[in-house]
Every structure is written in C-alpha cells, then in structure tokens.
Structures
1.
Amino acid sequence: MALLTPFLPCFMVAMKRSRNIVILTGAGISAESGIDTFRSAGGLWEQHRVEDVATPEAFARDPDLVLRFYDMRREAIQTKEPNPAHLALARLDREWPKRDGGQVLIVTQNVDDLHERGGALNVLHMHGEHLNAWCLACDSRPRWTGTLIDRPPCPVCSEPALRPDIVWFGEVPYRMDEIYEAVAAADLFVSIGTSGAVYPAAGLVRTARELGLQTLELNLERSQGSAWFDETRLGPASEIVPAWVD
Ligand code: BV8
C-alpha cells in the first residue's frame, strides 16, 4: 500500500485502505436523470398507493393497473440517460481493481438500467429490472422493452403469462446470499441516494457495521439510516459521487 500522508481525511484513508467496496444505490442516484424517486415530494408512491401497484395481491386484484404502471415506467426509463453519478461509479468499478486489486459491487434497489448504460460491469439488481419480464408459465426471464398490458406471448414458451420482473413488497429480494457474502468480504460500505425506508436493503448498513466495515452515506438529505453511518455527505449525487470517487 502507498504510504498514506498523515493529513488525509478519514475517508480518503478508508478508500486507500479499502480493498473491496460494496455500494448500495437507490432511486436518488437516478433522480437527476429524470427518473422519479419514490418518497420525495411528488414521487412515484404519491401518485399511487404501494398497495395498489407494487404487491402480488395488487397484481392478482387488478393486473391491468399494475401492468400499466410498469409499462409506463419501462417506457420512461428508455428515454433517460445516465448522469455523472452513474458514470463515476462505472469508472470506480472498472479502475479500482487495477488501482488496488480489490473489487467493487454495486447493489442497486433501482430497476432502471442506468448503471449498466453508464458503463458499470458489476451490478446486482436486488429488486429486479424493468427491462426483464418474468414468465409465470416457464419461469424464464426474457429481456423486455415493450409493454405487457396486451398479454404478449412469452418468447420462450408462447404462453401469455408475462409479469414485470420486479420484486414487489412481500416478495423476496434477489440474490440476498450474494449480497451478504459481498458485505462480509468488504472493507467499505457506501450508500447512495436511498431513504433507508425499505428492508432488507435498509438493514445492510447495520450488517456492515457489525462486521467492522467503514460506512459512508452520500445523499441529498439525511435518511432514516443516517445515524448508522460513520459519515454522511449531503448534496446531489451528480456532484458528491464524482467528488468522492475522483
Ligand atoms: C422482503 C419495487 C422478506 C420495484 C420495491 C424488516 C425486514 C424485512 C422486511 C421488512 C421489514 N420491515 C418491513 C418489511 C417489508 C418490506 C418493507 O421494507 N417495507 C417498508 C415500506 C417498511 N420489505 C419487503 O417487502 C421486501 N421483501 O422483506 O421479503 C425477506 C426479508 C429479508 C431477507 C429476505 C426476504 C421487498 C422490498 C422490495 C419492494 N420493492 N420496489 C419498483 O416498483 O420500483 S421498493 C422501492 O423502494 C424501490 O425498489 C426503491 O428502490 C426502494 C427504496 O426506495 P429508495 O430507492 O430509497 O427511494 P426513495 O424515494 O425512498 O428515496 C430516495 C432517496 O434519494 C431520498 O433519501 C432522497 O433524499 C434521495 N435523493 C433524491 N434526489 C437525490 C437524492 N440523493 C442524491 N441526489 C439526488 N439528486
């Protein structure tokens, strides 16, 4: 390890010392790309009750309402572009292993593809992805950029049994074992653009602290989890994320 000059701010030290970094992102990292967040003023949930659109019960009760809600959002994200925060994380993801030999894993609650379109390679969508469908007849997860409201045939089994490949409330988030393993192997946990309102994602910072990781929060405002972080830096992601990475 390069000799650390004694006056480096504590997180510069942590960055230099950290080999493996787990980064949790939420809707706030995509806000400046024009994708609605959930709980900020005028956010998605203010336009829709969660119970009406993001639960299996809602889908069973009114599938057209749910399919239209996700069709609208799937179409919207395809008109948006990654912002400097996505681009900065992609640089870190690509360059960190060369600089330090460690790994970066971006665990996102987001269901847009802006991390990938920004160039990130190691992205884990714990709440699913708008641009996948899920066939309830054959359990395949075909790539899907169109609408589902007209019950199109599954490209694998031809059954009209496609639903959004989204983790709804009450459903089990994807690849939790991998996420906990990555946190257990990391030295630094960074949370970006999340209110800390939804579990188990919101509990990851506590798991990180219990395992002795350094924890850093980058957010527009203090979140429900801020008290659990060693440091919180406030500001728009497009400014504070590149400032942290670079
Ligand atoms: C589950 C669907 C069992 C996709 C979503 C305790 C333990 C475990 C579960 C629970 C628990 N207590 C309650 C539960 C149940 C529930 C839950 O958490 N309920 C909450 C409301 C209390 N959880 C579940 O049902 C989960 N499943 O628990 O299964 C289990 C448990 C453990 C292990 C295995 C299995 C399923 C949760 C997933 C639900 N699906 N979305 C979709 O429609 O998009 S959640 C939804 O909220 C989105 O995915 C979103 O990502 C997520 C979190 O929201 P945020 O991303 O944080 O967005 P938000 O708007 O809230 O905040 C934005 C933040 O950004 C703000 O802080 C804002 O200040 C900031 N910001 C804004 N602009 C900027 C910015 N920051 C920087 N720059 C900016 N420009």
Note: The pocket of BV8 is lined by residues 26-28, 31-32, 37-40, 43, 54, 109-111, 127, 166-173, 176, 193-195, 197-200, 219-221, 223, 236-237 (CB under 6 Å).
2.
Amino acid sequence: MFETLSDRLNSVFKKFSGQKTLNEENVQEGLREVRLALLEADVNFKVVKDFTDRVRERCLGQEVLKGVNPAQQVIKIVHDELVELLGGDTTSLNLSGAKPHVIMMVGLQGSGKTTSSAKLANFLRKQKLKPYLVPADVYRPAAIDQLHTLAKQLGIPAYASTTQMNPVDIAVAAYAEAREQQCDVILLDTAGRLHVDEQLMNELVNIKEKLNPAEILFVADAMTGQDAVTVAEAFNAKLGLTGAVLTKMDGDARGGAALSIKTVTGTSVKFVGMGEKISDLEVFHPDRIAGRILG
Ligand code: GDP
C-alpha cells in the first residue's frame, strides 16, 4: 500500500538533499511535486491544498532548525502532517457502558463487512473478550451462510438468523440471546446495497435506535478511493459514524481513501484489512503508516 506515493515523495526529498537551506523558491518547487503526488494518490483536492499550505507555512516558518539539513527538515514536517491527515493518535474501540457492547458494521455491499465482522470478532477474542456474531444482511444472497461458516470455523457463537427475518427483529432478538450467553461484544453485520439508498439507511437508523451501539463502524473498500469517502459522508450524515475499517488495503497502491477520510468526514480509521484471511486485520496506527509512506 502507498507504494506510488512513497516513491514520489522520496524523489522530492532527494532533491532537497542537494540544497543548503529551505527558501521560498525550493519549498514552492518541492511542494508542487508533493501536491501532484498526493493528487495522483487520489487524495481529495481540498485535503491536498490544506496539507501543502500547512507544510509550506511550517517549512518557511520559525521552526526550521539550524544544523539540520533541508531534506531532513522537510521529511519531519511532511511526516508530522501525514500523521495528522491519517487521524493523529491511534483511536481504539470504545467499549464502555453496559455489556454486551454492540458494534454495528455498515457500508456498501462487497466492501468487506462480513469478512471484517469475523476478523474483528477474532481480534476481540484475542483481547480475552467473548464476541457474538450476528448476521443481519438478509439481502445479499449467502451473506448469512458466509458469516455462519466463519463463526463455526472460529468457534465463535452466532445468532441463527434467516433471510425470512426482518433485520431489526434479528438485531433485537440477537441482543437478548447474546446477553443470555453473557457475551461481551456483539458484531452486527448489517446489509449493504450497491449504492446508498433511503430504505437501507432507514433500516440502519432503526437498528441504531433499538440497540444504541457503542460503535458504528463504516466498512469501506480502500481501492474505491474517493468514492469510499463520499459514501462515508452519506452514512455519517444519517448514522453518526464512530470509526472506519478500510479493507483491501493490501491491494491499494494509492491510499487516497486512507489519506482523506478523517479530514473529509471527521471519522477516524480504526482498523485496516490487509487480506482475505481472518488474521489479516491490523489496528490503524497513523504514525506507523506515515513512517511506512516515507519509507
Ligand atoms: P460484504 O458484502 O460487505 O459483506 O463483503 P465481504 O465481506 O463478502 O467481502 C467481499 C470480498 O472482499 C470477499 O471476496 C472478501 O474475501 C474480500 N475482502 C474483504 N476484506 C478484504 C481485504 O482486506 N483484503 C482483500 N484482498 N480482500 C478482502
């Protein structure tokens, strides 16, 4: 992930290493290339503009350190600003309040909700919590079977939903069942559509009102770039997202969604999917990712 951006930024920094100081001219020239690199990585244009404005200000501002070469100065500033763009500090799951805590997984069909629900259940079990999986995607053929199969493989309890049931009824009945079984966290795999639609949103709002989830995680396919960000805005406006899971980061060489989603929607990325296997889920650490981008 981020391979292209990483290559491009490194070639910009190389040019700075031949310079004696940072000045208006070389900063302007370097930032033009940083701007292009970010736009090519499919980062939102407004995000790119604000980012380069901040970097320019800091490069030409007070904080330029004597005795440190221009390339190192620029790398440090770009690193700090990338961390901010990626969301600042690592944001963990909010699992406060009464048990079982509900984590509602929302997003478009094919984004990776079902897979991520199972991955997250597995992740939580490793934290010594008792997860409970709830298939509530009654519209996508085989989504329920898919989650039941994953639950069985993992040995994690799952609600016996069927496609004949209404998703709101599933959510309510599953909550009672999970409480009965003294589970700590419910992972609710909700339905997605190929695009945002009113009926789906109303159904999700209904489930939210009934279950009062601790987390509403937006699951987005990172490879869809800015489309993922636009869809996140729509879900956020209706539901109030508490975080995002960016899937298929293993196939996303550009990184536009990861670099734009926090600034555009205010929603922090909490996890990334790095492959199809259950273990391919990582906590999203902005500082480590920024380090990876800068190589
Ligand atoms: P849903 O419709 O949102 O429930 O999507 P699924 O969970 O069924 O995922 C759709 C496809 O994406 C499946 O083939 C998954 O194996 C695949 N997938 C999900 N997450 C990842 C990921 O992080 N990396 C890769 N490479 N594939 C993923």
Note: The CA atoms of residues 236 and 265 lie 7 Å apart.
3.
Amino acid sequence: ELKDNTIVIVLGASGDLAKKKTYPALFGLYRQGFLPRDVKIVGYARTKMDEAEYYKRITSYIKVPEEEEAAAQLEEFKKLSTYVAGDYEDGAAFDNLNKHLEEIESHYQSKECNRLFYLALPPSVFIPVAKNLKEHCYVSKGGINRIIVEKPFGKDLESARELLGSLKQYWSEDETFRIDHYLGKEMVKNMLVLRFANVALGAAWDKNSISNVQITFKEPFGTEGRGGYFDEFGIIRDVLQNHLLQVLCILAMERPVSFSAEDIRDEKVKVLRAIPPIEQSDTLLGQYVAANGKPGYLDDDTVPHNSVCPTFAATTLWIHNPRWEGVPFILKAGKALNEAKVEVRIQFKDVTQGIFKDISRNELVLRIQPSEAVYLKLNTKTPGLYTRAIPTEMDLTYKRRFSDTKIPEAYEALILDALKGDHSNFVRHDELDHAWKIFTPILHWIEGKSGQRPRPVNYPYGSRGPKELDPFITKYGYKRSTEG
Ligand code: BG6
C-alpha cells in the first residue's frame, strides 16, 4: 500500500544512474499517477548547482512521450523536485538535508512523514551515507524510512559480508531494498506465472523433459568510457552473478506457498544452496579485440594495457536437487557482440526415435529484451499429401498480443514496489550470500589468487562471441535444430 506524504530522496542525483534510470522512472510513475499523493523528490549530491542546472540534468534522459499533456506533466514534475548539495561524509551536511526535508514536511496535513532514500552512489560511499542518513535524516515520529541500494554489493563473499554487516548496523532488512533491476523486467516477472499457472508447462519442467537451459545476455557495445569500473569488476560480477543468476533462481525454484516476498525468496535461496561453486572446467572466458572498425577492449584508454579481464563469460551451473540433477544451466554474457538480446532458451530432450528420425527438439524461448516474447518450437506435419515433420513456432510476441499495453520499465516497477514496501523483487541478504558462495572461487581464480591469471580467448568486436562457444554449448548437450 502506498503511503501519502512521502519524500523520495535521490542520493547521487548528479550521477549517471540517477539521470539515466532513477529520474526517468520517477517521472514515468508520476505521469501514470503511481506516485503517492503529495510526493516530493529531493536530489542530493556533492556538485553545487542551481535549480536550472539540476532540472537540466535530471530531465536529460527523460523521453517526453508524444501525448499532449506530457510536456506539462514534466513541468509539474520539476516543481516537485528540489536539490540540496552536500558532502557524503559530513554529518552537518546531512543535518542540512534533514532541515530541507522537514521544511517540506511542515506543509503536509498529517503528522506522518515517510522517506524513501535511493542510493544511486558508488560503493565507496555506501556506508558513510547509510550511517549519516540514519543518524541525521531518519524520521522517528511515526513515519516509514526505507533505503534502496544497488550493486556492486561487494566483490566476493568476504567483502559482501563486510558491506552487508556494516549496512545492517544502521538499516534493518525490512527497511532495505537491494535492487537487481532484472527482477523488475516484465518477462522475468512473467516467469512465475508461466511456470505455475500452466499445467502444460509445469508438467514438463524438470530433468525428465528438459535437456539444458541457456540464459543469454548480449550487448552490441563495449565498455566505451566505463572501462575503469568494468576492469575492476569484469563481466561475471557485472551481469552473471546477479542478473542471470536471479533469472536462474526463478526458472528453477519450487512453487512458493504464496506470492509473499518471504515465501518467494525462501524458494530462491533453496535453489542457490543446491548449487556448488562453479568449476574452472565449466567456464569459458573471452575478451573482445578490434574488428569492424571498432576498438578492442585493450584499446580503451581507461583499461590497463595488459588487462586479462573477461568481457565475455559462459559458465555452467548444476543444481543438485531431485528436479534438476544433471541438467546444465548455462549462463553466458558478453559485451561488444553482434546484437542486443537477453533470452532464456529451454531445450527439451529428444523425442523417442522409431517413427521419427532427425527430428528437432522442442525449445521454449523467453525473450526478455528487446521485444518481449514467448515462443515454443514445435514439430508439425507440413501440410500436404505426405508425412514430414518440420519445426515451427508458436509465437507470443508482446507487441502483437498486447499491442495497446505499455511495458513498464524495470525501474518503474521496482521503485513502485519499494514505495509499497513489497520486497518480492528485491534481493534478500541470504540470497546474496549464497550467490557469492557460488561465484567467489571462480572469481578468485580469474584474478590470480591461486596462481597465474587465466587468459581469456579473443573474439572480434561485433561477432557472436568466441569461436570456442559453440563446442562449449554442445558439450552440455545443446543440439541445434535440424531446420527452421
Ligand atoms: C548493469 C550492468 O547492471 O546492467 C551493465 O552494470 C549492463 O553493464 C546493464 O549494461 C544491462 O541492463 P539492461 O537493463 O540494459 O539489460
């Protein structure tokens, strides 16, 4: 339920995340009427700027829809927004922020005031900001305080535990909303419905019917300008350990007792606990090199010239439980590939031979982006006076089926959930802990903690990935369709 009299405070308001994601999502919610009554938005960051400059920054990524009223709504949205400049480590600066918040709240009718703090900040200031907010900006007179935080949550198990432990001193689990924005994506949210509201799919959802599962993330651009951050983290921490692993959990979990946040997250944690740490032999690492007129990873000035940081990784996870024993879950992600695409591909087993030969396997594809779609590859008799089966597709493309519906942005969905206090699509502390247990050994190996750093194989900018990828997937039983 939404609380009236809420202030959303965006810390890091002049940064990239805030201008690209947070403010556009807040505006999207505002114009669709989803923000609480009397909402106000306060930006906070170090940069000193006047209102005009602040408005310019926060609206620079907002695409004003064509509808007539949208431009007017943007003006209204600006009027709700104010800005306070201040340091992240300085208690007095947060007192100043608090004064500003109290001034706004003094105009509210009711005494209850609620504050949602959104930390769009680099990890180096997470802790001082969390502490200062608690000590200087926490409403204690009957309102609700919530804090939204974003990855990176540490670099490995140990550092994540340290970070979470420090944050816990100031903010309880109930007040904390850890974003993994993949959980806000429409198709990811659809997965629970597809699985548990369809007998036909549910019945085939296990090792008896499924041969292998691939969860794929492809981006057509490199680290352009973000090389400094990226080189420290690599593709595994950037995408696999969080976004793709969360998708895996939802695909693999047992049916939750209810849709409550704890019931859902309990089931996800059980999946994570059944996955052992990733083996080196189940991992393929790549790095892009210059091609098609585009620079290689090492040509990026912000990247050390001899970096062996992977910009591509494929790795296979195994879930040791009765439903999934022996079914490989292949996660793969890469930068600077041939296309932008995120999808899940569930490949079913071979049909019994005999009356059929060389027949393709069924595949269920859940396309997360772009252009959300669910399609099932089915073998069908070609129409005609003979019997020949060919692979065809049962296709549910959202643009066609739900043509009048606007698909919400992930950040819109998640900010709305946080405003309502619904944790279902946020990452619980123990999920994070288990996620790090699975990935920490392989990350330490890649970083040379146990000897020489492994060298990733090369792949050309704009290609499908390393040439080693096809044999890698085949090794885990994936079979290409014979046709179609
Ligand atoms: C972020 C990663 O978490 O997700 C980026 O840090 C990546 O490197 C991005 O580009 C992808 O998000 P989306 O929503 O564009 O798929």
Note: Residues 227-252 form the longest helix (26 residues).
